[in-house]
Request: fold
Amino acid sequence: MNKPPPYKSAPMQIPQPYRPSDGNGGPDYGPRDLMRDMENPDMLVPPVTDAGLLPNLKFAFSDTHMQLNKGGWSREITVRDLPIATTLAGVNMSLTPGGVRELHWHQQAEWSYMIWGRARITAVDQNGRNFIADIGPGDLWYFPKGLPHSIQALAEGCEFLLVFDDGNFSDLNTLSISDWFAHTPRNVLSANFGVPESAFANIPKDQVYIYQDQVPGPIDSQKVQSPYGTVPLNFKHRLLAQMPLKTPGGSVRIVDSSNFPISTTVAAALVEIEPGAMRELHWHPNADEWQYYLNGQGRMTVFSGGGKARTFDYRAGDVGYVPVAFGHYIQNTGNQTLWFLEMFRSDRFQDISLNQWMALTPRQLVDSNLHASPELMAALRKEKWPVVKYPGF
Ligand code: MN
Ligand code: MN
Reply:
């Protein structure tokens, strides 16, 4: 260990687990996964304020199993991948033009965000009321638990994120129409539908899951008239079309049952953080937060009390998680705009701003507690800004 550390002589900037500010750490001579180290600079060299045991709060869709079918693919991050994420699970799915996620249902509610492309969704509720809609980029849908539904990509294909209100969910273990047919005796199917058994000669032998079909025609050509009408609450919401809450350094679009009434178990925010800006120090009093990074790169530090804090790096395609009430902030560490979704198993979006809490508490108390400078005391704001830019920092 007498040879000079390579980080001092290396011609290229190869990151080393060494923190120049306090001289802690040393070179890593390998074996090492340099690409992973470069993707996780704040894990390799954590800020000095990181300390203590905090569970893993990150999982990349790139590290999951890909389910490949004719007609599309899917992959998921559930409690099996990210054990702390017990409240929500997520599925990233893409369908080729005309590709179908077959007729199915599940015990969990389904919330979804269309990342790109277009799809047609259908559903029927417990009162025989039906629903059909075309979904475009930035649109959401929500299917209450147990209601049967389908998804089919339109001419350009599509990719979307599905979020389920149970971390134990798996999209590979739902209730599918083909699976039930395959596991029901033919004579029972015959009696149920009042047709001869020969009518079932060609049904699939197993669960289909995703299959390739033709691109469907115009939506009006597919509509089925129900004697009971259509569902009373819209299952679709245009999130990106919603007027954002603009703040210096970014924007936020909040969606929950107050503006998307059917969505009683999932609340969400679509957050935009410009380069150099951050989502301020805050927490959520009502639910764990499940994040999906859509664009750019950032880092999040989570504070859990008892002297514990841990920092993670995230980029597009990663999932982050924050247990209820744990303090956290997110910084844009790249030169592109950082976009991410934060989802909560709740009917309402709720957050507490550290800054606002301090501003609405007796000054003398905050001052004596923190020995805060007059400068800090003067900077506190009574209004909550979910995204804040610190110019010059
Ligand atoms: Mn589903
Ligand atoms: Mn948050």
About this structure: The first strand starts at residue 18 and ends at 19.
